[in-house]
Amino acid sequence: MVKSPVHISKMSGKLEGFRSISVNTVTNPFCQKMNKTDTICGECYSMSMLTTYRKNTAPALQRNSDLLSSRVLKTDELPTILDKYFRFDSHGELINATHFRNYVKIAEHNPHTTFALWTKRRDIISQYCKRWPMPDNMILIFSNPQIDKVMETPPRFFDRVFNNVTDKYKGEANCTGQKCKDCLLCYKWHTTDVIVEHVK
């Protein structure tokens, strides 16, 4: 049996108890561009971490970036995942359509796991979903880049929208800062379509 070349990370902090397949934020052209804007990307925790105290994890994430965006993986290269819930891109963002196709293949290869992907790349999602169906075990969450501009409806092809707000926002936040494993609002079906979190 071929060992999968895909690197899987064990998460900490808010994501303690989860594992994730991620890519390198620092070298991602989309992330580089967005990091210079006044959106939530301008406050990117990943960009900061991977250039300072988590710099040692960048090479493994870069290998994922190179692999997942360059070609569609063969079936025997796909990782076998036994987790109940799993996250795509806790670091980084979709690089291109090939990257997303590989995530879809990983989800299809592991039907007993529920996968969640946060992304701002509506272009990539739309391009794929107009042609092919999504696997039933993959939740697509649109990561709204605008702070304090809550989207009440997910964009087409997305299951949820994730919003970031400051103290200016007078509404209620339903992402309360607890560990994700104790909440699972984003990872379970039939909870809510709109997530609101206060910027830390």
Question: Could you explain the architecture of this structure?
Answer:
The chain has helices at residues 29-34, 45-50, 58-70, 97-109, 122-129, and strands at 9-10, 19-21, 85-88, 114-119, 138-147, 160-165, 194-198. It has 200 residues and is α/β, with parallel strands linked by helices. The protein has one domain (9-198). Strands 1-2-3-4-5-6-7 form a seven-stranded mixed sheet. The model has no long low-confidence stretch (mean pLDDT 94).
Ordered list of secondary-structure elements with their pairings:
Layout: E1 9-10, E2 19-21, H1 29-34, H2 45-50, H3 58-70, E3 85-88, H4 97-109, E4 114-119, H5 122-129, E5 138-147, E6 160-165, E7 194-198
Parallel strand pairs: 2-3, 3-4, 4-5, 5-6, 6-7
Antiparallel strand pairs: 1-2
Helix pairs in contact: 3-4
User: Residue share in helices?
Assistant: 10-25%
pLDDT < 50 runs, ≥5 residues:
none
Main sheet overview: 7 strands, mixed
How many H/I helices? 5
Order of strands, widest sheet: 1-2-3-4-5-6-7
Identify the overall geometry: globular
Please write the string of helix (H) and strand (E) elements.
EEHHHEHEHEEE
Mean pLDDT: 94
Q: From the alpha carbons, calculate the radius of gyration and give it in angstroms.
A: 16 Å
Total domains = 1
